[in-house]
Amino acid sequence: MATPRTFLLVDEQAGDPDGDTVLRIRGELDLSTAEQLRAAAAPYLTAGGRLVLDLSEVTFCDSTGLAVLVGFHKRLAASGGGLELYAPVQRVRHLLHITGLNRVFRVRTEGEEAAPR
Amino acid sequence: MPRWRAARRALAAFGLGMAAGLAVSYRSSVTASRRPAVPQPRAGGEAAFTLDRVQHMAGFATWEYDPKTGKVSYSRQLSAMIGVDGIPGNLATVGAYVHRDDAARVRAARDDLVVHHKPFTIEFRLVCPDGRVLDVISSGEAVRDTSGRLERLWGTIHDVSEQRAAERAARDSARHAEEARADLEVEHQALQMFQRAMLPADLPRLGGVDLSAVYLPMAERIDIGGDWYDAFLLPDGRLALAVGDVTGHDLRAATVMGQVRNAVRAYATECPDPGTVLGRVNRLLARLPDLDLVTMIYGVYDPVRYELVWSNAGHPPPLLRRGGTVTTLTVEGGLLLGVVPSDEPYPEHRLRLGPEHSVLWYTDGIVDQRSVDPDEALERLCQAYARAGGGAGELLGTVSVEMLAEGQREDDVCLLVLRRAAQDVGGRPSDAQPSDAQPAGAQPSDAQPVGAQSATPARDAGIVPVDDEADAAAAARS
């Protein structure tokens, strides 16, 4: 069996009320799509920037996907910015919880207001 | 006309091997298109034009030799095919275009037709003045009148270049795919050998300790996982255990795995405390220029006290089996390794194994498949482990079979079972005889988790520290 081919769509949304860039991601974030997300988000990983990833329609995330998110976080955090994950599904929240990354990223559930800076 | 004379005349007319007598005018401008000349209406009338169109579309030309006149005539499509303005019928012509490597075969076929009237169908190449090489299939036959006398020789030349090019491309790509597959297979085998070299060849043997571990690679997958387990004896006679998973599925992941495994062994020899070892591995990884993430459980088992001390760095929770009851040891863990270089704490947890109690450490491949809810998969794992029986090897076998029987696994899996044997066997690694040790052969009883060293409270209701029996029971599953 070959590595399952999965799909991932990345849309730029209008900025959230704080003016941060929001990327809405749909599909599965894994070995075969990680590079796609990395490329799509690259323009937004600016010094001091803040990036919100809307994960509400990401149904699966593996360790390679997590590594991409950690990479974004490190890039942004190094320059005083940050990464925020919006509305990850239970499965992804579970993974963030086990790995402890829910304490590293700002994770916002659906309907929750953006956390104060 | 005697037959030999007719034949000689015909041979001369076809002109094979007689390029010196060639007199054709080349097109002044050569285009790159496959069929350079689209037929235009000519004096021959609508029927001839239609024939030209059909021949042009089919890449098909005809020729004819009239023994009475000694002339060869070619359909216009042949000159279009070759890319010349016209092919004079009375001179050595098409033979001059035959590829030199094919000339002998073509000549032999032509001779057989002319001399013996033996029909032929052969494939050969024509080299056009503009450098194109055409693959053609040519046929020839003798046409006789009703009395059986030779009337003419007639044949076709069919341009099959595109078809042959497509076939060659298909063969080439098939060959390249085969070569690429072979390359990948070699790489895969190298990676697997590397990975296996990183796993301990033998597990340490200790009295009273029943230990079993397995690495289940994905045979169908060309890459490898960064999963590993390790078990080794510490200088103080205790047993160090590790199960971990490196992000990625390539040589780099395998290399990082090797580094981490060796680092753990080195650090553990200096100071085996799980919190210390994981903290040092974290700093090591976070300082590497590339982002390498590792989840890992590392622990130390004291076979005298039956006490396991462990820390979890972002790894799926271990399971504790007491009799037929399995508990998920969802404890306060530390962050997965390699994210932050700061002194990330890795809280230590302790539990005491009763006779025949065991713990199962695993990597997420066994519960993490995209078609299955991970909570349900964990529940299934608990049930399989609870139903299993026997020694560590049997436990591990049952769990592997039950979990991997259905559905397609997506990742490599490592499993490790540490079980306290029913009866202590052999010598003890330490002279210390703790007063609260279970006597050999005691009936299975509940594990006695002792207080966790770390006072860090659980930050989340979902995390239950195993620092007293009530909490362990709260997390118990069956």
TrEMBL record, chain A:
Source domain of life: Bacteria
InterPro entries associated with the record: Anti-sigma_ant, STAS_dom, STAS_dom_sf
One MF term in the entry's GO annotations: anti-sigma factor antagonist activity
Coiled-coil blocks: none
STAS domain span: 10-117
Family the entry assigns: Belongs to the anti-sigma-factor antagonist family.
Xref: SUPFAM superfamilies: SpoIIaa-like
Gene: arsI
Name of this protein: Anti-sigma factor antagonist
Pfam families given in the database record: STAS
Automatic annotation (TrEMBL), chain B:
Region: Disordered, residue numbers: 425-478
Domain PAC: 120-172
Keywords, ordered alphabetically: Hydrolase, Signal
Pfam family, one: PAS_3
Statement: the UniProt record of this protein carries the keyword S-adenosyl-L-methionine: no
Superkingdom as given in the UniProt entry: Bacteria
GO molecular function, one term: phosphatase activity
First and last residue of the signal peptide: 1-19
Entry protein name: PAC domain-containing protein
Organism annotation: Planosporangium mesophilum
Organism lineage: Bacteria, Bacillati, Actinomycetota, Actinomycetes, Micromonosporales
